[in-house]
Design a protein that fits this description.
Blueprint: E1 17-20, E2 22-23, E3 42-43, H1 46-56, E4 64-68, H2 77-90, E5 96-101, H3 103-107, H4 111-119, E6 122-130, H5 134-139, H6 146-158, E7 162-169, H7 177-191, E8 195-200, H8 208-214, H9 223-235, E9 242-245, E10 256-259, H10 263-276
Parallel strand pairs: 1-4, 4-5, 5-6, 6-7, 7-8, 8-9
Antiparallel strand pairs: 2-3, 9-10
Helix pairs in contact: 1-2, 7-9, 9-10
């Protein structure tokens, strides 16, 4: 199979067949993200994608497929339908297809468009939210407002597709830490997603945010500051039913909870770590990674 550049996927897609339908990220402006800065965005020809699917058949039955790269839902509807149809043709055993998206990608699709994709087994959309702080969304060039993020998430859920969102601990810096955490709890409540993945900021050389850090204009919260943000997001958000994880390799404290069921127990566990302030409870720095 042909992969162009580094390939990223959500932790929950570790066992999935990864098909690269786009190269890079169509938006590619977020100030903290260095994942796709070395790639010129392109949508791969359907013939190449079908060749990859044909080659991957040697793996045998496949349960899940993930479509990369960064915001592959930007692919025009009819081309995306062809890709999904091809996945179903080569892997009829697949029960779920996942994809990255941003709010703009989603809002370009009508509800009927999304339902058609769902009928072709698009079962989960991963949307980067990062923060609910309106000013911070602008500063990090997220490309969407608070309201647009909520509207996009609502449309995904209305279409009967699982919604998984990511939030980014530390993106508000030390000065904006409390506001970032509280407003992110607000947007998580408004989104009411099926899954939340909390990642911790890791500064990437070559990104605008790293440049701010080098100039002394941005200060990353310490590990316990990041964990305090995590606590606030869990404590002050409200969900119907949500699997909340901070088990990404960037995080100092891995957490997995089903909310609201586990809220009291997980907050008590976090408080134990915060009160002890003992780094032996944390993932060592050398094991952290993007």
């Amino acid at each position: 199979m042909k992969y162009i550049g580094a390939i990223y996927r959500p932790p929950s897609e570790a066992g999935s067949l990864i098909i690269q339908a786009t190269v890079g990220c169509h938006h590619n402006k977020c100030t903290f993200c260095g994942s796709y800065r070395q790639k010129a965005f392109a949508i791969r020809p359907i013939e190449e994608i079908r060749d990859d699917l044909r080659e991957a058949q040697y793996m045998g039955p496949v349960d899940r497929v993930f479509i990369a790269d960064g915001d592959a839902l930007c692919i025009p509807q009819q081309r995306l339908i062809l890709i999904l149809e091809s996945i179903n043709e080569f892997f009829p055993s697949a029960t779920r297809i996942g994809i990255y998206a941003n709010a703009a990608n989603i809002l370009r699709k009508s509800l009927d468009d999304l339902k058609k994709l769902r009928d072709l087994k698009l079962g989960i959309i991963y949307m980067g939210v990062e923060t609910g702080d309106r000013g911070l969304l602008q500063r990090i060039c997220k490309g969407a407002t608070y309201e647009e993020l909520v509207e996009a998430g609502s449309r995904v859920k209305q279409a009967g597709i699982l919604l998984s969102v990511t939030v980014l601990l530390g993106i508000g810096g030390v000065e904006g830490s409390e506001a970032h955490a509280k407003h992110t709890a607000d947007i998580l409540t408004d989104l009411d997603p099926d899954y939340v993945g909390a990642l911790s900021l890791m500064l990437v050389p070559g990104t605008p945010l790293h440049d701010e850090y080098e100039k002394g204009l941005f200060h990353v919260p310490d590990p316990f500051g990041l964990i305090r943000e995590l606590r606030t997001m869990i404590a002050e958000s409200s969900f119907s039913r949500c699997v909340f994880r901070s088990n990404h390799a960037s995080n100092y404290l891995p957490v997995k909870a089903t909310l609201p069921r586990d809220k009291d127990s997980i907050l008590a566990a976090i408080d134990t770590v915060l009160n002890a302030r003992d780094k032996k409870h944390l993932r060592p720095e050398f094991l952290r990674a993007l």
